Amino acid sequence: MSGAADRDGGRTVGTRDRDGEGRARNARPRDGLGRPLPYGTDGVERQPEGVVRTPEETVAQAQALLDAGKPFHAHEVFEDAWKSGPEAERTLWRGLAQLAVGLTHAARGNVTGGVRLLRRGAGAVVEWAAAGAGRARPYGLDLAGLAGWARDLAAEVERTAAPVDAGARAPRLRGTP
């Protein structure tokens, strides 16, 4: 590079985007599946990070995002619950985040990532439910149904190697409506 820094869309190339507190944050716009778009492009509004929600709010907001075909954004909602919730529930919320990311990868056409994360998330929620009596439906969540959905979707993605429609294949977090 010459003495002057190259510029791309008003941001210096080679530096990291930072938030108001100096933490590294990727400010690039993203599409509905969380893929980065070029700077200056209109993207989908991102989920704010670090929001503390009740478990019921988490489930409702994640379901709305899943239904809208935005599993990447639903994963961010689950990630907030995973990071801010009680230690005893972290495996549950992490498993749900993995399911959402698995659907994200499957919708993007990433067969390997989609299959791995769907299966990993299914295993995590089943393991969490099995660890204590009466925890099969925390906050109304249908953990057995979600694990079955994830395993079925993983098998389909593995068999067809074709991207899925995230909105059409969104799970019902609380079972059938």
Structure commentary:
This protein is 47% helix and 2% strand. The N and C termini lie far apart (58 Å). The radius of gyration is 18 Å and the shape is globular. It has a two-stranded antiparallel sheet with strand order 1-2. The longest helix has 20 residues, at 111-130. Helix 3 (90-108) runs parallel beside helix 5. Strand 1 and strand 2 form a beta hairpin. With 177 residues, the protein is an all-alpha fold. The protein contains five helices and two strands, in the order E-E-H-H-H-H-H. It has helices spanning 55-67, 71-84, 90-108, 111-130, 143-160, and strands at residues 7-8, 11-12.
Strand content: under 5%
- Average pLDDT confidence is 86
Biggest pleated sheet: 2 strands, antiparallel
Low-confidence stretches: 1-13
Straight-line N-to-C gap: 58 Å
Class from helix and strand fractions: mainly alpha
What string, H for helix and E for strand, traces the elements in order? EEHHHHH
The radius of gyration is 18 Å
Number of strands: 2
Residues in helices, as a percent range: 40-55%
How many helix segments? 5
How are the strands of the biggest sheet laid out side by side? 1-2
Indicate the overall shape.
globular
Nutshell version of this structure?
The chain is mostly helical. The protein has helices at 55-67, 71-84, 90-108, 111-130, 143-160; strands at 7-8, 11-12. A hairpin with a 2-residue loop joins strand 1 and strand 2 (11-12).
